[in-house]
């Protein structure tokens, strides 16, 4: 595929290298020529100086033949405007924009532009490390209503079947992390020592799930 990236910061340059290593052609846009110093010396893609929301600039980057457009500059407004130009003017279906303001991210998701809400994602990751006990979100849908969360199931669940945990906590186990590998379990899968249980649930249901697990621990202890 040919992919156009707006923003040659740490994220943009990293994406450019990964995509090129996977065999895709890449054009990267940045308003500062100095930004291209982040690209490795052997980078074969195109470097275009300018604003990604300028139609002539993204046309020069090959947007008309692009399969995807990524906007990862440091400005929310620039990212969303350029993403809309790529989608609405040039008909690129696969468009992603990085947005720092989580409230804006949800609005643009509803407009059909996939976004990565940097601040919310970072906050969730930090909370998972600060508060390891209980279920903390790994991923949430654009509305914030559904989350994938890591559940501290407690040592008392070791030796129990996944189905028993699901029934007790009225939740759904999405997958287990076991010794660095991911495992999609069925109801008869037995939870082993060291397993990390990931559940899919409504965001406002996490507290209840935690309470159910805590109650189970209290009953068994």
Q: What's the SSE pattern?
A: EHEEHEHEHEHEEHEEEH
Distance between the termini: 57 Å
Major sheet strand order: 3-2-1-4-5-6
Proportion of strand residues? 25-35%
Number of strands: 11
**What is the number of helices?**
7
The chain-level structural class is alpha/beta
Largest sheet: 6 strands, parallel
- What average pLDDT do the residues reach? 85
Which regions contain 5 or more consecutive residues with pLDDT less than 50? none
Radius of gyration: 22 Å
Protein name: Trk system potassium uptake protein TrkA
Domain RCK C-terminal: 133-215
Domain RCK N-terminal: 1-118
Organism: Actinomadura meridiana
Q: What are the key terms here?
A:
single chain, 221 residues, alpha/beta, six-stranded parallel β-sheet, five-stranded antiparallel β-sheet, 11 strands, ion transport, K_uptake_TrkA
Give a quick summary of the entry.
The protein has 221 residues and is α/β, with parallel strands linked by helices.
Account of the protein in words:
- It is a single chain.
- It contains seven helices and eleven strands.
- By secondary structure, it is an alpha/beta fold.
- The radius of gyration is 22 Å and the shape is elongated.
- Strand 5, helix 4 and strand 6 (115-117) form a beta-alpha-beta unit.
- The protein has helices at residues 10-21, 55-60, 76-89, 102-110, 118-130, 162-169, 206-220, and strands at 2-6, 25-30, 46-49, 68-71, 94-99, 115-117, 136-140, 146-151, 172-178, 181-183, 196-202.
- The mean pLDDT is 85.
- The strands form two sheets. The chain has a six-stranded parallel sheet with strand order 3-2-1-4-5-6, with helices on both faces. Strands 7-8-11-9-10 form a five-stranded antiparallel sheet.
